[in-house]
Amino acid sequence: MKTLLIGADGQLGSDLRKIYSADELIPLTRGDLDICDYAEVSRTLRGNTPDVVINTAAYHRVDECEGNAERSLAVNALAVRNLALTCKQMGSIFVHFSTDYVFDGEALRPYTERDTPRPVNAYGISKLAGEHFVRYLYDRHFVIRVSGLYGVAGSRGKGTNFVEMMLKKAQEGQDIRVVNDQTLTPTYTRALAPRIKALVETKRYGLYHMTCEGECSWYEFASAIFELSGLRPNLWPTTSAAFYTPAKRPRYSVLENENLKSISAPPMPFWRDALRDYLEERKSRLTPAQ
Ligand SMILES: NC(=O)c1ccc[n+]([C@@H]2O[C@H](COP(=O)([O-])OP(=O)(O)OC[C@H]3O[C@@H](n4cnc5c(N)ncnc54)[C@H](OP(=O)(O)O)[C@@H]3O)[C@@H](O)[C@H]2O)c1
Questions:
Q1: Rounded CA gap, 26 and 33, in Å?
Q2: Nearest residue to 88 (alpha-carbon basis) of 139, 48, 123
Q3: The domain spanning residue 120 has which CATH number?
Q4: Catalytic residues
Q5: DSSP element (H, E) containing 22
Q6: Whose CA is nearest to atom 21 of ligand 1?
Q7: Which of 8, 168, 194, 224 could potentially form a cystine with 27 if both were Cys, beta carbons 3.0 to 4.6 Å apart?
């Protein structure tokens, strides 16, 4: 299947790119295509006649989104609506990514796809609006909610990823404080990529949660990063109240991959195993070949 990938140099996009062979993939960066330029989107998509369009592009600087509701909605909702409509006109499968931040975090157990979203920040609202546009406009879609992404390319939108940020602080000898009252499931993009391809090939369209298994707080995630890297920096737990951010975050945003399991798709790894794999991949990239 000919697949057009939007956001090809992003964190998830870079790992998806490795999964597809060159002759089946059309990788597009923002320099190639701005999804907010509707005329260009229509021209590019029609010009390439893809069987599948994968959109990893997003405006996801969560704190910035609070003061930039228009841009959030433009990239995360209106451009997504336009992509879905164009896919519908062409008959292409549309694959789009959403977030655990569509939930309010008040649950006491992992959220399934059957739970009602209730975002608590502008980013989450814009991503939920994008989901709704896709789901109501066009049947042949995959809307995939992911969480706490990290990959060797680093997040383009955020400038880095959490693992790299922690390792850098440790190397600089900084005191490190990390919130211990927000629980999620960090997810390695390299673990996601082949499973996304496999899911799309099933043509079992719909809404999917797709994160690693298990859960941890950001503080526990940081502790595991240092433990697995053999580092012992000065790390302390803190609270969301003490660590002010413009955007509120859900206290608990663990996702249950219920729909994925119901179709017997290949299971996601546990977050700690995936972290170990990431640190290995990172090490092999940093070690020059002999
Ligand atoms: N990162 C996380 O922790 C996380 C958590 C939950 C959900 N998600 C979702 O997962 C998806 C992938 O995230 P990611 O971490 O891989 O993001 P990323 O590394 O920031 O990659 C996003 C890509 O989209 C491109 N892009 C941004 N605006 C664009 C536009 N208007 N037109 C075309 N391309 C544009 C970016 O290009 P430039 O950098 O050149 O602008 C970048 O290459 C997103 O939908 C995000 O909302 C991410």
A1: 12
A2: 139
A3: 3.40.50.720
A4: 123
A5: none
A6: 10
A7: 8
